[in-house]
């Protein structure tokens, strides 16, 4: 049976994804490759957090 921990990770996942998209778009528009890379890393982190939340929900 799942608990709120899985939901918390899913919410964090959404926040990281939005933050990553914003950084990536800003970096792309401003020509800031470092910021663009940070955005991509945040999106990868988002995917991990989502999977972690889904796993916790199955426990």
Automatic annotation (TrEMBL):
* Basic and acidic residues composition bias: residue spans: 31-59
SUPFAM superfamilies associated with the record:
Hypothetical protein YjbJ
Alphabetized Pfam families for the sequence: CsbD
Domain (CsbD-like) ranges: 9-58
Q: List the transmembrane segments.
A: none
Where do the record's region annotations for Disordered lie?
1-59
Give the family this protein belongs to, as stated in its UniProt record: Belongs to the UPF0337 (CsbD) family.
- Name the chain's protein: CsbD family protein
Q: What is the lineage of its organism?
A: Bacteria, Bacillati, Bacillota, Bacilli, Bacillales
